Amino acid sequence: MRRLITPAIIALFILSSPSFAAVSPDILKAPGRSEKAIAADVGRRPIEVLNFYAVKPGEQVLDLLAGGGYYSELLGKVVGPEGKVTAYDLPLGSDADSLQEKASWDALMARNPNVHFVTGDIAHPAWAPESFDFALLHLVYHDLYWESAKYNYPHTDPAEVLKRLYVAMKPGGIVGVVDHVADPNTDVRATVESLHRIDPAVVLADFKRAGFKLVDKSDMLMTKRDDHGKLVFDPAVRGKTDRFVFKFRKP
């Protein structure tokens, strides 16, 4: 009798193979993580996300637009002392909030020596060729279509950023994109400005033009309870938005 090989069996085989060690939930219990980060774990499901992307010890990783370092810290735990995480973001200001953010990053790097906070020009990032095994854009790809004088966020051409990211990835390198779903056939920049969401089809088309190949996607963060017409910071949906999870590879 033929045995049916289901996707679940295939996934189990991959996760149990010697070449891939599943990420342990114990990294969420690491000392020093903020209460805000811990509270976000439920909605973000980071262990499942990192296992989906098959991040491995020893890898060189880019956390693009790293924000407060939520994923930078977790990635540092996964890649271990032989790996490195480059947490890339815009330069910090000199106001009180920026000084507090700098202190938070200093503390994060002190407890995770393999994490390095690097600031630079997001519109024209200067990464060395073939530097990264894995890059993550978590809830930030839409920001490449955003600009704000108030927040000192420059106009950015997503095609230019992806061109530079393509060069920076090693052959076979993986890029993970997680973002808030917008309804299709909407003006991209207007939707980003008003809702901080993006149509998944736009992301797929952008990465295809840049030369990346979509190798997998997951509905693990999808939900029918989200209202795509609400700003993602609206208390009614914040932390509970409908999110797509894409996995791209540089050939």
Description:
By secondary structure, this protein is an alpha/beta fold. The chain is built from 8 helices and 7 strands. The protein has helices at residues 7-16, 35-44, 46-53, 70-79, 96-111, 158-168, 188-195, 200-210; strands spanning 60-64, 84-89, 115-119, 132-138, 169-180, 213-218, 243-249. Strands 3-2-1-4-5-7-6 form a 7-stranded mixed sheet, with helices on both faces. Helix 6 (158-168) packs across helix 8 (200-210). The radius of gyration is 18 Å and the shape is globular. The relative contact order is 0.12.
Gist of the model:
This protein has 251 residues and is α/β, with parallel strands linked by helices. It is 33% helix and 19% strand.
Query: Structural class, judged by helices and strands?
Result: alpha/beta
Tell me what portion of residues adopts beta-strand conformation.
Answer: 15-25%
- CATH hierarchy, class: Alpha Beta
Mass-distribution shape: globular
Name of the CATH homologous superfamily: Vaccinia Virus protein VP39
Discrete helix count:
8
Helix residue percentage:
25-40%
**Uncertain regions spanning at least 5 consecutive residues:** 1-18
Sheet with the most strands? Answer: 7 strands, mixed
Distance between the amino and carboxyl termini: 38 Å
Strand and helix map with partners:
Blueprint: H1 7-16, H2 35-44, H3 46-53, E1 60-64, H4 70-79, E2 84-89, H5 96-111, E3 115-119, E4 132-138, H6 158-168, E5 169-180, H7 188-195, H8 200-210, E6 213-218, E7 243-249
Parallel strand pairs: 1-2, 1-4, 2-3, 4-5
Antiparallel strand pairs: 5-7, 6-7
Helix pairs in contact: 6-8
